[in-house]
Design brief:
By secondary structure, this protein is α/β, with parallel strands linked by helices. The chain is built from nine helices and seven strands. It has helices at residues 17-30, 48-56, 69-78, 94-98, 118-126, 145-150, 152-178, 184-200, 205-215; strands spanning 38-42, 61-66, 85-88, 103-109, 129-140, 220-227, 231-239. It has a seven-stranded mixed β-sheet with strand order 3-2-1-4-5-7-6, with helices on both faces.
Length: 244
């Protein structure tokens, strides 16, 4: 599959900042997922996106992995009428993941920044791919310098300006009117991230970009957006070759 340029969403109504990020990245992800693909969703959360892909693409099968018990319970609840499978496990446990078989797509969205060794873990994911399988990595930098220096109010204003610039006045304003910012989900995610960073540290995407380029020389790596509230939104699309 030839790498394509990312698409911007056309018409979105977003309930909160986390939903804004998810909806912003979904059109790009859909470009690399094909009918009958077998998809592994790393750090799946409630698996809202992958469950939509399961039904609409449609996928052959979906497996979601998340280290949080509550997230897996929610994913299983949302999957009550689907054929997805969800497991509470560490997505860095490559030996266990190998027992699940090979995949056409491995999606890691806002999960790799939790890894102790992001480069090594992503290298391990290559072994889990079918020939011509794809790794879709989408992640953000940690909180921006704007947040650190000027605090929440200015960061919130600039984030809203980014939303309007990205989606246009009509859709951007609809998004802002619907925001509950910071949402409960965003606060929970933020709390987990802060605790994680205090324990083991937390990389900036730009800090590992050069390593990604060396490790995955054929990958398409770029920046999808710049959001002061989230840092930069970055991506890597890697396709496994028969010899890779």
């Amino acid at each position: 599959m030839k790498c394509k340029d990312p698409l911007a969403p056309d018409d979105l109504f977003l309930g909160n900042s986390l939903q804004a990020f998810y909806a912003f990245t979904e059109p790009m992800i859909r470009r690399y997922v094909e009918p009958k693909d077998r998809l592994l969703d790393i750090g799946c959360g409630d698996a809202a996106l992958s469950l939509r892909l399961l039904q609409s693409v449609p996928l052959e099968s979906l497996i979601g992995v998340d280290i949080r018990e509550k997230a897996i319970k929610m994913a299983k609840h949302m999957n009550s009428h689907g054929n997805g499978e969800f497991f509470e496990s560490d997505a860095q446990d490559l030996e266990w993941l190998a027992t699940l078989g090979k995949f056409d797509v491995i999606l890691a969205r806002t999960s790799a920044h939790h890894f102790l060794d992001p480069i090594g873990t992503l290298q391990g994911y290559v072994d889990l791919l079918q020939d011509s399988g794809r790794i879709i990595l989408i992640d953000i930098d940690r909180e921006s310098a704007c947040y650190s220096v000027f605090g929440f109010p200015l960061t919130l204003m600039i984030t809203w300006m980014t939303v309007i610039k990205t989606l246009g006045w009509k859709n951007g304003w609809r998004s802002i009117r619907g925001m509950k910012y910071p949402s409960k989900a965003w606060r929970l995610h933020r709390a987990v991230d802060v605790a994680h960073r205090k324990k083991i540290g937390w990389y900036r995407f730009k800090d590992i970009k050069s390593k990604l380029q060396l490790t995955f020389p054929t990958a398409h790596i770029g920046r999808l957006a710049s959001c002061c509230g989230l840092g930069g939104v970055h991506y890597m699309i890697y396709e496994k070759t028969p010899n890779g």
